[in-house]
Amino acid sequence: MSKKILVLEDxxxxxxxxxMNLKRGGYEPIEAGTGEEAFExxxxxxxxxxxxxxxxxxxxxxxxxxxxxxxxxxxxxxIILSARTQEMDKVTGxxxxxxxxxTKPLVLSEFxxxxxxxxxxxxxxxxxxxxxxxxxxxxxxTRNRTLEKSGERIKLTQxxxxxxxxxxxxxxxxxxxxxxxxxxxxxxxxxxxKIAEVNIRRLRRKxxxxxxNPAFITTVWNLGYMWGL
Length: 229
Ligand code: CA
What we know:
By secondary structure, this protein is α/β, with parallel strands linked by helices. It has helices at residues 12-24, 35-44, 62-72, 87-95, 108-123, 158-169, 177-184, 193-207; strands at residues 4-8, 28-32, 50-54, 77-82, 100-103, 132-135, 138-141, 146-149, 152-154, 174-176, 217-220, 224-227. It folds into two domains: 4-122, Rossmann fold (3-Layer(aba) Sandwich); 132-227, Winged helix-like DNA-binding domain superfamily/Winged helix DNA-binding domain (Arc Repressor Mutant, subunit A, Orthogonal Bundle). It contains eight helices and twelve strands. Strand 7 and strand 8 (146-149) form a beta hairpin. It is globular and about 50 Å long. The N and C termini lie far apart (42 Å). Calcium ion is lined by residues 10-11, 54, 56-57.
């Protein structure tokens, strides 16, 4: 089965570099130079598992494209490729639904490690244990990776699903950012506190009654987070 990855990047030299290295890594890159082309390619290839999105594009803003792709497909993996390095952009990218963020110029080893890690998570290599976890108002189905709260389906990204699963597997236990990053993103992410924080903020918006005063995912000052009901 081909491992298709959408590459949305208008600078041909960078796109060429990314495409060449994805091919070497065993992937099938699907190229786009504009937002419109990207949506066209996604329509043509519904089996794309991962999307790499540049931010500065001739016809669109990458964050907006990210939001639209995510609204259509909660399961696809999304990595933002950006020349900007400001922390705010990273946060914006993650809040619009991206799973990860890589800055240009790309460092090849780091870039490929992150692509491989996210591809593994989103394409789901390992079979899931069958069954359900029910806690309080939540019902987590580990077979089809869905979450219901009080009978209503909550749309989760793959990363959000893994976060909820980790919390539900550890009720009442304080989980440090490092533990969460290590388990959900992989060992090489252990110092990326921002990624954990932003994803948890996004998750709270989906599952908490009042995200400003979270009742399920509580912050334990200076330590991390705890799942309680
Ligand atoms: Ca660009």
